[in-house]
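ugh ok fine here u go
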Amino acid sequence: MMKIRSFILPAAIALCIGALPAMARGPQGGPAASNPSAALSAEESATLLWMREEEKLAHDVYVALDAQWDLTILERIAASEQRHFDALGDKIEHYALIDPALPSEGAFSDPDLQGLFQALVEAGLESSTEALVVGATIEDLDIFDLLHAIEETDEAALKQTYEHLLEGSKNHLRAFVGQLRARGFDYAPQYIDPLLFDAIVGV
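structure:
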């Protein structure tokens, strides 16, 4: 089986280094909003806002690439990412935070996510196989960040939402890796531990 080329991007590396809340930002790159009466800490709030935009990133990238390649997997998983995005929107409303998500597809409050969106779409437009690599990369990163988010919070309702999203992202990763393997390519994890990756997708 052919090993797919490494896909780590400079912007993507920046996203996964260090603690997630330190990177999370609110609208226009400002600090994440917080409500003194809310049950969340500043770090939990920042992570929730970050995850909201990260789910938008996944959705918008898949929509853009599906317009080029018309792959059923991209259309199907984009719809699932919309549900993930909506679930996090409900949590933002519940905790009275300011939603950083912009209404336009491909537009992000956080400049790192904006750059990552552009880089991922550009790479995925090279070929339909590269589009699948982009999908696997996004889910790899999403799982990494969700695991951090779950570990960080003691808020039961929020943890449950993250855990639900995590299972969805595992399914998405399996789907993208399965499609790549069917084409004779293998995806190597760039964010999550290789042992966890093997446990999710199989060897």
